[in-house]
Amino acid sequence: MIIVLVAVAVVSGGLLAWVNNVTEAPIKEQDEMALANGIKSVMGVDDLTVTANDELTKNIGGKDYTFIVHKTSDAQGNFLGAAVESTTMGFGGDLKVLVGFDGEGNLLGYTILQHAETPGLGAKADKWFQKDGKGNIIGRRMDVSKPLVVSKDGGDVDAITASTITTRAFLKAVNQAYAAYSAQDVDAASGASKHTKSN
Predict the structure, then answer these.
(1) In angstroms, rounded to a whole number, what is the distance separating the alpha carbons of residues 80 and 23?
(2) 184 pLDDT above the threshold of 90
């Protein structure tokens, strides 16, 4: 009986490893395509080129956060701004957003890349803060000294109904994304970054 169980475990392990190996490349390709489409979506431009993918680590409140700043330019090579990947802790787990900013610091758009929020409540974040949503933040001129804050905490952004924790987490991710972007000291004319790391 022990031999049979060991044999079953070995065969099962081998099959799982084979399936993982077969599916790894297509999953990676699909993730890259989703990110590319997400960048176009949050920047509001279909014909763009990602000119740099800078990874930054910033210490915020005693915790290290990693951001990826995808700098973009249009078909003529003009700097458009950047799409920033930002992750923070939501109500149910990690909340990862991709946020687009132009060269003047205006928020162009966002998309949720990953979340574990309650279906029907916190999961509404993908629409709530859009132009037709109740907590619209699209078009806002970002300012590190005046972060986006939920109205319950003295700000002017309406919280998702019954999901204040998710709203706070989302706004934190957006604020941190802009802090990472603005710390790049981006030269709007060339899109060149004067430094890529900031702690």
Answers:
(1) 35
(2) no
Count of CA atoms in the C-beta half-sphere (13 A) of 113: 27
* Alpha-carbon gap, residue 99 to 90, rounded angstroms: 16
Cα(18)–Cα(100) distance, rounded to whole angstroms? Answer: 38
pLDDT in tens, 45-65: 989 999 999 998 887 777 788
Structure tokens at 161: 């109904």
Q: Output the CA–CA distances (angstroms, integers) from residue 24 to 20, 27, 32, 35, in the order listed.
A: 6, 5, 12, 17
Quote the CA–CA distance of 86 and 30 in Å, as a whole number: 20
Rounded distance between C-alpha atoms, residue 83 and residue 50, angstroms? 9
The residues, any chain, with a CB within 8 Å of residue 141's CB and separated by 6 or more, are 104, 105, 106, 107
Please give the single-letter amino acid code of residue 86. Answer: S
Q: Residue 173: what residue type?
A: A
Give this prediction's pTM. Answer: 0.75
Residue 158 CB coordination number (10 Å): 16
Q: Which amino acid is at 87?
A: T
Q: Where are the alpha helices (DSSP H) in 93-163?
A: 125-128
Q: What is the CA radius of gyration of the chain?
A: 20
